[in-house]
UniProtKB/TrEMBL annotation:
It comes from the Bacteria. The lineage of its organism: Bacteria, Pseudomonadati, Bacteroidota, Sphingobacteriia, Sphingobacteriales. Residues 16-139 form the Activator of Hsp90 ATPase homologue 1/2-like C-terminal domain. Signal peptide: none annotated. Belongs to the AHA1 family. InterPro entries: ASHA1/2-like_C, START-like_dom_sf. Coiled coil: none annotated. This is Polyketide cyclase.
Amino acid sequence: METTAKTTITVEATINAPVEKVWKLWNGPEHITKWCQASDDWHAPHAENDLKTGGSFKTTMAAKDGSFSFDFGGVYTDVKENTLIAYKMEDGRTVSVSFIPKGDTTEVIETFDPESINPLEMQRGGWQAILNNFKKYAENN
């Protein structure tokens, strides 16, 4: 019998803010456009978010020089306020984001199915960079 282990990637950060604030800044479209990029030469000019099980989201991610853009989106499969967001991306991969309150801080843990084109470390680095941008935004707003 042959078994195939499913590879997932996990990134995490401890945010110096209470979970209610972290949840609001993570999910509000007006906030998503301010933190959802992996580097300073990219931005998120548009975000939509219907945060409920069965709801959908879409964030446009674009190079600031206008050379490239794409929509990152999916459908929520599970939403538990201030605790968990799980979704399926448009290409079928799954993601879960856990929000773990620890007093005045919140641990955010994202686990996702990698795509098959780019190396795992590159994907981990990109998602971690976005999470680091979120941490910086949440701690300064």
